[in-house]
TrEMBL record:
Protein name: tryptophan synthase
Key words of the record: Amino-acid biosynthesis, Aromatic amino acid biosynthesis, Lyase, Pyridoxal phosphate, Tryptophan biosynthesis
InterPro entries the UniProt entry points to: Trp_synth_b-like, Trp_synth_beta/beta-like, TrpB-like_PALP, TrpB-like_PALP_sf
Domain Tryptophan synthase beta chain-like PALP: 80-418
Source species of the chain: Yeguia hominis
Pathway info: Amino-acid biosynthesis; L-tryptophan biosynthesis; L-tryptophan from chorismate: step 5/5
Entry GO MF terms: L-serine hydro-lyase (adding indole, L-tryptophan-forming) activity; pyridoxal phosphate binding; tryptophan synthase activity
Enzyme Commission designation: 4.2.1.20
The keyword S-adenosyl-L-methionine appears for this protein: no
Superkingdom field: Bacteria
Subunit structure: Tetramer of two alpha and two beta chains.
């Protein structure tokens, strides 16, 4: 019997030197992102007013399988990477399962999440281009915190539009962002045209990632020396996050292990996409591969109940159009506690892989079940997980209990994207019995679907 340690660490020398671009291996690349004015595929020049030039090139790169990680980014990674791959022995024992459960833990940095993997790369390219400031949005606050750290490191100014309900639920996230020098504005706000328009129509609007994106983009394109950056959904972000899966695969190889099932929470797709990409490469090449499961909140079910269509990536309809699983850019999700998963659409890469059957399965989970799983995990594994990550935990437990019934000794890998220490209000609500579940009705979804544009001859 193999003696596998509780935590498996790679050395600094084993830190990957390249990101993996899954688009180079996809059987059908996702449909091109469209310029909303011309409905033609966007070019680098179309994206340059919004994104850094190098990031725009990465966004449209379909051919380079591996892209070098800049030395300065890799050196920064060494502050908190390689991150540990953990064998969840205590969870296995609590469940009485023959399954072997591993999780990749991304919470060992101040931002408390995997978001720093892309934040530092995007800030680096902005600094290299000579820019002076960035704008962004954030839901739960993990991305905003990570980007504030990265901008603080490179001396860049940062304006963060934080979904209003999340800013109210997580005031200490705002405090951390401000500590690193960011300016944080609850969204929708009266600082932008799109924000004022939304507030005029819906004064009590609790906000959404789509709305916050609209505000951040508006400021970026109208402010000299400024660009917009995004923490999920985009191809460039999934590229940077493949550091998670590359490390996971190498750590498992050290134990002579390979996962039968890979599970990740899915909001915009950065965590799941980053974790599964190197294993997806095996599947696309016709080799043995895991069963991939995306887990999303029942309150915002873009994969399980959305439409595969071209849609705007923001509520204000100022961004390019992407073909993805979407609930409609006008969909306003409920104020559930998994703010990082509160987005109307899914990564075009993951959407295409799901549409083509390579991403095997999507499940939605109610938040009370998510927190039930989170508390079990916290009690037996010792780490308080973020609500977003706890969606993956819930399904990992489901799969492990299936193995208990069948006697199968499957190997399960899931992503623990971050810690839940800024989510204590949510844990308090669950423990007090005041947390409720919201599942949108078909009528709720139809209101969002009505916002999806109809593009003659394209959709």
């Amino acid at each position: 019997m193999k003696n596998i340690p509780y935590k498996i660490y790679l050395s600094e020398e084993e830190l990957p030197r390249q990101w993996y671009n899954v688009r180079a291996d996809m059987k059908t690349d996702h449909s091109p992102i469209l310029n909303p004015a011309t409905l033609k595929p966007v070019t680098v020049s179309d994206l340059e007013p919004v994104f850094c030039t190098e990031l725009a090139k990465q966004e449209l790169n379909t051919t380079d399988r591996f892209i070098d990680i800049p030395d300065e980014v890799r050196d920064f990674y060494k502050m908190y990477r390689p991150s540990p791959l953990v064998r969840a022995y205590c969870l296995e024992k609590a469940l009485g399962t023959p399954a072997k459960i591993y999780y990749k833990f991304e919470g060992q940095n101040t931002s408390g999440s995997h978001k720093l993997n892309s934040a530092i790369a995007q800030a680096y390219y902005a600094k290299q281009q000579g820019l002076t400031s960035l704008t962004t949005e954030t839901g739960a606050g993990q991305w905003g915190t990570a980007l504030s750290m990265a901008c603080g490191y490179f001396g860049l100014k940062l304006r963060v539009y934080m979904v209003r309900v999340s800013s109210e639920q997580k005031p200490y996230r705002k405090a951390v962002m401000e500590t690193y020098g960011a300016k944080v504005i609850p969204s929708p706000s009266d600082t932008t045209n799109v924000g004022r328009k939304i507030l005029a129509e819906f004064p009590d609007n609790t906000g959404s990632l789509g709305t916050a994106i609209s505000e951040a983009v508006e400021v970026a394109v109208s402010t000299e020396g400024t660009r917009y950056v995004l923490g999920s959904v985009l191809n460039q972000v999934l590229l940077h996050q493949t550091i998670i899966g590359l490390e996971s695969k190498k750590a498992l190889e050290k134990c002579d292990e390979y996962p039968d099932i890979v599970i990740g929470c899915a909001g915009g797709g950065s965590n799941l996409g980053g974790l599964m990409a190197p294993f997806m490469q095996d599947k696309l090449a016709g080799r043995h591969a895991p069963h991939f499961i995306a887990v999303e909140p029942a309150s915002c079910p873009s994969l399980t109940r959305g439409k595969f269509a071209y849609d705007f990536c923001d509520t204000g309809k100022v961004t390019p159009l992407a073909r993805m699983y979407t609930l409609g850019s006008g969909f306003i999700p409920s104020a559930n506690h998994a703010g990082g998963l509160r987005y109307h659409g899914m990564s075009p890469i993951l959407s295409q892989l799901y549409h083509d059957g390579y991403l095997d399965e999507a499940r939605s989970v109610e938040q009370t079940k998510v927190f039930e799983a989170a508390e079990l995990f916290a009690r037996v594994e010792g780490t308080l997980p973020a609500p977003e990550s706890s969606h993956a935990i819930a399904v990992a437990i489901q799969e492990a209990l299936k193995c208990k019934e069948t006697g199968e000794e499957k190997t399960i890998l899931f992503g623990l994207t971050g810690t839940g220490y800024f989510d204590l209000a949510a844990y308090m609500a669950y423990n007090a019995g005041t947390m409720t579940d919201y599942i949108p009705t078909d009528a709720d979804l139809e209101r969002g679907f009505s916002c999806i544009p109809h593009l003659d001859g394209i959709q």
